[in-house]
Design brief:
- 49% of the residues lie in helices and 15% in strands.
- The protein is α/β, with parallel strands linked by helices.
- The protein has one domain: Rossmann fold, CATH 3.40.50.720.
- Strands 3-2-1-4-5-6-7 form a seven-stranded parallel β-sheet, sandwiched between helices.
- Strand 5, helix 6 and strand 6 form a beta-alpha-beta unit.
- Helix 1 packs across helix 9, helix 3 runs parallel beside helix 5 and helix 5 packs parallel to helix 6.
- It is globular.
- The mean pLDDT is 94.
Length: 265
């Protein structure tokens, strides 16, 4: 058993998850990645190993209890405990609710993003010790409902509330819980999201501005994983939204958002 600090990152083979893993290596952690695609996972582990501290990768599905239990057993045998749990894995579907004909596809966001986060938290929780940290990745759409993102918004809002509940459950154990709600990040998932947008949305949003790189987003998020503040925001527009929610009556804020958020005509 090694005395090294270890961090487990779901969805860690690309995008924000991989950027977080790289950042944590620089902070002295040994990263353990979980992802569904073996080829990309192996490539990510190779890069991380060359940075030092070693790295491990597991092909697994965060909605599968057996997959997660096998990985938890490895962490327990190899490290004894877990210092940092990053629940990042997720997908995004872009479609009006009425346009879904495949009901398995319709529940995918909720099953992977929300249920996968809840299940992974439960399976890996026994490995956490006082001063361990949990970071969940939600979205700006976890704080607001947007047309064509109904199931995604439901899942990401669920993560925000789940994080708040879990934080209170773990206070007495001195385990910190954070949930990040970033705006768009320049990742492969975002590229696919743009391709899947319906025509009315593409016309309304010809290009979202101020995309953060995964490395920049990871740096900003991890810097805020300290103290007692639950929700982490790294974009001006998301911070402004939270401020306006506290300042304005709900009806006024809703009317303003109706003017700015795209919707089918």
């Amino acid at each position: 058993m090694t005395n090294k600090k270890c961090a487990l990152i779901t969805g860690g083979s690309s995008g924000l998850g991989f950027a977080i893993a790289k950042r944590l290596v620089r902070e002295g952690f040994t990263p353990i990645l979980i992802a569904r695609g073996k080829e990309r996972l192996d490539a990510a582990v190779d890069v991380l190993c060359k940075m030092g501290n070693g790295a491990y990768g597991f092909k697994g599905d965060i909605t599968c209890h057996n997959d997660l239990t096998m990985i938890a057993d490895f962490v327990k045998d190899k490290f004894g405990s877990l210092d940092f749990l990053v629940l990042n894995a997720g997908v995004v579907s872009v479609s009006l609710l009425a346009d879904y004909n495949n009901f398995d596809k319709m529940k995918e966001d909720i099953e992977i993003d929300l249920w996968g986060t809840v299940l992974a938290a439960r399976v890996f929780m026994p490995l956490l010790t006082p001063q361990s940290r949990i970071l969940m990745i939600s979205s700006g759409f976890g704080l607001i409902g947007a047309a064509a993102y109904s199931t995604y918004c439901a899942a990401k809002a669920g993560i925000v509330n789940f994080a708040e509940a879990l934080r209170r459950e773990l206070l007495y154990k001195k385990i910190s819980v954070y949930v990040a709600c970033p705006a768009d990040i320049d990742t492969p998932q975002y590229e696919q999201e743009r391709k899947d947008m319906p025509e009315w949305m593409v016309k309304a949003t010809p290009g979202r501005h101020n995309l953060l790189s995964p490395d920049t987003a990871a740096e900003k998020i991890l810097k805020k994983c300290k103290g007692k503040k639950l929700i982490i925001t790294i974009n001006f527009e998301i911070s402004l939204l939270r401020f306006l929610k506290r300042l304005l009556p709900e009806q006024i804020l809703t009317s303003i958002l109706d003017l700015f958020l795209p919707r089918p005509q």
